[in-house]
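Q: Please design a sequence for this.
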């Protein structure tokens, strides 16, 4: 499916077809390709696709390491990956985990993006990973109930990405999954400095109650399953009556 660059758009998928809804205006800078690269990384889930992509990416050497940072007395541990090649400053991508917390899935996406030439940081909101689904839901709950707390910890994580070797602090993006999709949309709503594009994959779409941004600067892409029973089609932004080109997801 060909997708035109857009200021704000949603891709709504079903089990049989993909539909692009209401593309807006072209992105007028080279960072536009980040959206497609993010999608290419995440969409390659079948074994044959992964093998083909792995062969192509294996030629680019990368460096990776854990990064510890603090929110008060809470110790957080993110995962940083970046190309070893020296050169001009590279765009950075923040990877937002789902309710399970940061694990091998997000770390793998960071490695994939680093092999594509980006500086990637898989953040950690919890400071731990729960042993059960119920425990992880409990770790997530304070952030869904207090979106200011969520944004504070996102900002701390974004600061870690900005400090990474070789990153261009003015060319940042974010991708997020489910709970992480909600987080990256909040990043766009808050106009965090340097963030140019965010991509949400089956993310929670409800805005925080304190949203007061009149214009969102970042480019936004929402990838949402049409048959996702947790978020019905009427809540998808481009079909929601409150949607407009100046106030996205609010």
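A: Design:
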């Amino acid at each position: 499916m060909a997708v035109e660059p857009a200021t704000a758009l949603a891709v709504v998928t079903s089990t049989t077809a993909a539909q692009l809804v209401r593309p807006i205006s072209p992105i007028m800078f080279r960072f536009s390709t980040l959206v497609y690269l993010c999608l290419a990384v995440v969409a390659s889930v079948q074994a044959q696709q992964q093998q083909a992509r792995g062969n192509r990416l294996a030629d680019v050497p990368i460096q990776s390491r854990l990064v510890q940072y603090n929110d008060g007395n809470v110790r957080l541990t993110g995962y940083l990956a970046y190309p070893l090649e020296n050169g001009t400053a590279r765009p950075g991508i923040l990877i937002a985990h789902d309710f399970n917390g940061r694990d091998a899935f997000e770390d793998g996406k960071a490695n994939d993006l680093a092999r594509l030439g980006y500086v990637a940081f898989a953040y950690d909101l919890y400071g731990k990973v729960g042993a059960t689904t119920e425990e992880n839901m409990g770790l997530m709950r304070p952030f869904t109930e207090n979106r200011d707390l969520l944004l504070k910890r996102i900002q701390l994580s974004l600061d870690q990405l900005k400090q990474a070797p070789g990153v261009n602090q003015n060319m940042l993006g974010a991708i997020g999954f489910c709970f992480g999709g909600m987080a990256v949309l909040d990043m766009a709503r808050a106009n965090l400095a340097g963030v140019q594009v965010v991509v949400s994959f089956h993310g929670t779409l409800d805005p925080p109650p304190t949203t007061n941004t009149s214009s969102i600067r970042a480019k936004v892409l929402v990838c949402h399953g049409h048959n996702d029973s947790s978020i019905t089609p009427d809540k998808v932004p481009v079909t929601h009556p409150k949607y407009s080109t100046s106030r996205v997801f609010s």
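Q: Thanks. Anything notable?
A: Confidence is low (pLDDT under 50) at residues 1-55, 239-250. The first strand starts at residue 8 and ends at 13.
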